Amino acid sequence: MDNNNNNNNNNQIENANQNENQNEMKNLEKKVTKNLIKNYSNLLNGNSFKDFSIFVENESNTFEIKVHKSILSSRSPFFNEFLRDRDQINKIFLNQFNKKEMESILSYIYYGNIF
């Protein structure tokens, strides 16, 4: 009987340790995700290192949105295909989208969410 009790206690301790490790990993994952979102937000909303422009129209106004080729190409199959072998191109006109729609698309590309 003592052997069974020891095994049960060891299993309970092991399960508790696994749960604690899982909780630590979840907390770390949340922290990393929060930091990445903050960093990508700073990139998208700042002016540093932007090397590509997307032009969209609202009614008769044209808007330029400056972005990063590397982020677009790494996070979007469309932009990856478009930018491949086009190193010299630094702009695209996407008149099928208005400014708000394009900002939502970029939010998804940069953050993985639409805010």
From TrEMBL:
SUPFAM superfamilies: POZ domain (SSF54695)
Gene3D superfamilies: Potassium Channel Kv1.1, Chain A
Region named Disordered: 1-29
BTB domain location: 50-115
InterPro entries per record: BTB/POZ_dom, SKP1/BTB/POZ_sf
Residue ranges, compositional bias (Low complexity): 1-24
Alphabetical list of CDD domains matching this protein: BTB_POZ_ZBTB_KLHL-like
Protein name from the UniProt record: Speckle-type poz protein
Organism in which the protein naturally occurs: Anaeramoeba ignava (Anaerobic marine amoeba)
